[in-house]
Structures are given as C-alpha cells and as structure tokens.
Design brief:
mainly alpha
Length: 87
C-alpha cells in the first residue's frame, strides 16, 4: 500500500529591523539566543533529546554541519537550557 507524501512549505517570516538605541549587550544577548535556538532545534531534529548527550563538542559539530559559526561556552549552555525546556 502506497502512502502519500505531503510536502509542507515554510513561509518566510518578514524580518523587522531591531530597535535602535539599545545597549550593545542587548543585541549580543538577542543574537546569542537566536543562535542557541537554531542549534537546539537542529539537535532535537537529529535525535538529541537528553541534556547529558548535548555536550559542547556535539553542539559545535552541529554548528559546523548547519553552517553556524562556532558557539561559545555560554551559547552551548543556553542550547542545553532550551533542550531542557523542550523535554
């Protein structure tokens, strides 16, 4: 019996410019959060659901695979917190 494959199209979200005039630390934290969220989603999609298995090495390897710059220790910690919240 054949099953029908469905294709889902993902619509691009229109990006809004970031608010001007905020301290540099706000922009850094915002961008770090976005990077950590992208990495957490990639790890979850690849089957890494346990925080113990999400080592810095595994997170950094996923960053290389997905074309994201090497994350810092702080970003890796943030990735693990996102994975913890998803479980």
């Amino acid at each position: 019996m054949a099953t029908a494959m469905t294709t889902h199209t993902i619509e691009q979200i229109k990006k809004k410019p970031l608010p001007a005039g905020l301290p540099r630390e706000w922009y850094e934290r915002h961008n770090r959060g976005l990077k950590a969220m992208r990495l957490a989603i990639s790890l979850l999609d690849s089957g890494t659901y346990d925080v113990q298995r999400a080592t810095n090495r595994k997170i950094r390897t996923m960053a290389v695979r997905t074309g994201i710059r090497r994350p810092s220790n702080v970003t890796c910690k943030m990735v693990r917190s996102f994975i913890r919240e998803a479980a």
